[in-house]
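writing this on my phone so excuse typos. first protein, seq and then structure
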Amino acid sequence: MLSQKIRYAIRALQHLADKYGEGPVPLAEIAEAQNIPAKFLTVILSELSRFGIVDSQRGKDGGYWLAISPIDITYGDLIRIMRGSLALVPCASRFAHEKCKNCVEEKDCRTRALMLKVRDATADLLDGVRLSDAIELAPEFAEPSEET
């Protein structure tokens, strides 16, 4: 699962992508619109600033904006920046590979083989969607009825 920090980062960047080219967006506006605690948002945006994704300006007319065009940022890039990997297990990571503790040899591990496929399919999807892309909203899940 994605951590709360990564989900907040994604929502904040989606907000900034929607405002791209309009100048600095106040932290309070992002926090309120995306339901993100302001203190936590400050930490997240500061981290994204260190990676060159976000720029900021202090002061009365200050705020945050994307330092890169939304068309040049994929969701895969964002998750890799915030999490380090798209893989669900360390032995299936391309860039942060680690052998799993208490496991069989990697060449004999069927779980690893499956997780490599999951990682590749996830990367194909997330690397194909950019912050500039419209994403169709999914319907809400219906609560299971007592009759089912």
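second protein below, same order as before
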Amino acid sequence: MTNKLAQEKAYMLAVEFIDAINTNNKEKLKEKFSVSQAVLDEIYEEIEGFFGSIPFISLPSIETAFLSRNPRTFFDFYKMDDNLCWGAECTLFVDGKVAEPILHLEFIERDNELFLKYKYLGS
């Protein structure tokens, strides 16, 4: 898979993942993204720790996600040591504004498809 195609697929998966968090879609988080209830509780605790509540979070639009900015893009997508693994550091937005936490994800490529794996939320 080319880097450009992989980055677009990864972005769309990340949007779907964040949507599932925002809507508390436990079934989708478990089935599609292998997020257990314990990990989901941790995600919500992290979000609440940053904001004092659970706001609606989002990624920037796809038109701006990959634009170069200092020191990195809003959706920093990179190949990892293993040629079938990609990493992403995703700047989160709340109310259309850049928020402090960065969503760290891993993408595994299998049979020309990407699978999202949640890593952690940090600053």
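DSSP finds four helices and five strands in the chain. thats all i got for now
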